[in-house]
Design a protein that fits this description.
Blueprint lengths: L1 H29 L11 E4 L5 H4 L4 E4 L6 H9 L3 E7 L2 E2 L11 E5 L4 E4 L4 H18 L3 E5 L3 H4 L4 H14 L4 E5 L5 H4 L5 E5 L3 E4 L4 E4 L4 H14 L2 E7 L5 H13 L3 E5 L26 E3 L8 E2 L7 E3 L2 E6 L4 E7 L5 E8 L7 E6 L7 E6 L6 E8 L14 E8 L1 E7 L6 E8 L5 E8 L5 E9 L5 E10 L4 E7 L7 E6 L14 E5 L2
Parallel strand pairs: 1-2, 2-3, 3-7, 7-8, 8-9, 9-12, 12-13
Antiparallel strand pairs: 4-6, 5-6, 10-11, 14-24, 15-18, 16-17, 17-24, 18-23, 19-22, 19-24, 20-21, 20-23, 25-26, 26-29, 27-28, 27-30, 30-31
């Protein structure tokens, strides 16, 4: 009897020990501690300098060109964590010959190449780059960007998981932050310290050219928080807004505080450090601080510089120049140093870029101040560009006014400055397959509306074969017309806006368009 009791006792004890061991192992795995558990704030900055602003944050995420080695060491001496950006799923540069078998496709949105994370040559290139970053500047870790390549190409999911595991093995003490790639987190969560939730509460809409609120899926957010707690990493949220957009910034703050998530807010190109500790003051932008209007093909040679500007071309009767790279420069004159607005008119179509990007020189670097959507409406449109007074830097103090430099990239530009008058311009002209009719657009690229303006169409013999009325056109509004040929297809068409000269426009040369019928 005693033997049976002892035997039963030891069996129970053994089972209890086994349960404790198993539970203990599981708890040890689940309670992996993120190296970022104690941070209270973080910032993303892909510009240059701004050391004093950056040192206010516990975690700083930068590009390798942002800070010098001494500046990185200075921040680390203050107890800050400095993490550098590295792309592990895309290549910004055209892949070399030995990497061509690693290419999955082209990312047209950002002019980059999707790279196969299963490809050993690509892995070696990325890991060597990361080693160099640590040796050169002694960073604390890495932001692993473009993980979503494995979402775009699901067949590479396992390869991306193994790649991130390999990075952890190569850099066992480095801070690793994974940007998005949510479907992988059940597996990669074991190797990272944080996931970056970009565009969490707000983002940039390339179609509207505006920063907007994002819809929050409450259940999905809670699932992600539970997964992060289970795996032992934290969630960082990166949001986008104008620095003075009080409503949107407060929305981001409230959403992130609701879920107890750390947040950072910046501009689309992460080129500015916002001071969110101070009350946000609404800015009043002046629209009369620029009198100048640059007209391509007329006076542009005095104000445009750099080989990024291509030769002028006629687009449906209007002169325009394409700006490529950041070597397409513009000099505008402002009356005084204050928050200001100027305008730019460009052709909405005929180009691969999604946006016209504009930078300004503030005396130190070139922060991005605007990203204007380029669509496919195939008419000329006018957009406002806001410039803060602290971004104005007089490049030529000997000339009256403030001579401000801007960089342009990504559109076919017609006017820059302040188009106070209306400006009616032709858009796309297209013929039917049978050549029995023509479709054409007229748009208003000026700031003043027009009413009851005549548009006529003549044939090669100067006979009027069509007459139309623009009842009312406001800024960036357009009207499409259809003309059916009643007496056969003409050889040439001449379109004329406002033949009676009722309105005072910026330039009248654009009001006549001749089109050969081929």
């Amino acid at each position: 009897m005693k033997k049976e009791i002892l035997k039963s006792f030891f069996m129970t004890l053994s089972i209890l020990i086994l349960i404790i061991l198993i539970t203990g192992c599981n708890n040890t795995f689940a309670s992996k501690q993120s190296q970022l558990n104690n941070i209270k704030s973080f910032v993303f900055f892909y510009g240059k300098g701004e050391l004093e602003k950056l040192e206010k944050y516990d975690l700083i995420v930068i590009q390798d060109y942002t800070l010098t080695k001494d500046e990185v060491n200075y921040l680390k001496s203050k107890g800050k964590k400095v993490v550098v950006y590295v792309s592990i799923g895309e290549s910004d540069a055209p892949p070399t010959e030995d990497l061509k078998n690693c290419v999955l496709g082209k990312n047209e949105n950002w002019n980059s190449w999707f790279m196969d994370p299963r490809c050993e040559k690509w892995q070696n290139l990325v890991i060597n780059r990361m080693k160099n970053f640590l040796e050169d500047k002694n960073y604390d870790g890495f932001l692993l960007d473009t993980v979503d390549t494995a979402v775009v190409f699901p067949q590479t999911k396992e390869g991306m998981i193994n790649f991130i595991k390999k990075i952890r093995e190569k850099f066992p003490t480095a801070i690793l932050i994974q940007n998005r790639g949510f479907p992988l987190l059940e597996y990669t969560g074991d190797y990272i310290d944080a996931v970056l939730w970009e565009d969490f509460a707000s983002g940039y809409n390339f179609q509207s050219g505006k920063y907007e609120k994002n819809t929050i899926n409450d259940l999905y957010v809670k699932q992600q928080i539970e997964l992060a707690q289970r795996k032992g990493y934290i969630i960082l949220t990166l949001n986008y807004a104008e620095e003075d957009d009080i409503e949107l910034i407060n929305y981001v703050k409230n959403v992130c505080q609701k879920y107890n998530l750390l947040y950072s807010i910046t501009d689309l190109y992460i080129s500015k450090v916002y001071d969110l500790s101070a009350p946000i003051k609404e800015r009043i932008y002046s629209t009369d601080n620029v009198d100048q209007l640059i007209i391509i093909g007329k006076n542009d040679k005095d104000f445009l510089y750099g080989d990024g500007w291509k030769e002028p071309e006629k687009i449906w009767g209007t002169n325009a120049k394409k700006c490529e790279g950041w070597s397409a420069g513009v000099i505008l004159t402002f009356k005084e140093k204050k928050d200001s607005i100027f305008y730019i008119t460009f052709y909405d179509g005929g180009i691969q870029e999604l946006a016209l990007k504009i930078t300004t020189f503030n005396g130190i670097n070139w922060p991005m101040i605007a990203s204007l959507p380029v669509g496919d409406s195939e008419i000329f449109k006018t957009f406002e560009v806001k410039v803060k007074k602290e971004e104005l830097y007089d490049n030529d103090p000997n000339t009256p006014g403030i001579q401000q430099k801007f960089g342009f990239q990504g559109a076919k530009v017609a006017f820059i400055g302040y188009p106070k008058k209306p400006e009616l311009l032709f858009g796309k002209v297209e013929f039917s397959k049978k050549k029995d009719r023509v479709y054409f657009k007229v748009g208003n690229a000026g700031l003043e509306e027009v009413e009851n303006i005549k548009v006529i169409v003549k044939d090669e013999n100067k006979n009027i074969i069509g007459e139309f009325i623009l009842e009312k056109l406001g800024k960036n509004e357009d009207q499409e017309f259809t003309l059916k040929f009643s007496q056969g297809t003409p050889k040439k068409l001449v379109f004329i806006i406002d033949p009676e000269n009722k309105i005072n426009e910026i330039t009248k040369e654009n009001n006549i368009l001749e089109v050969e019928v081929k």
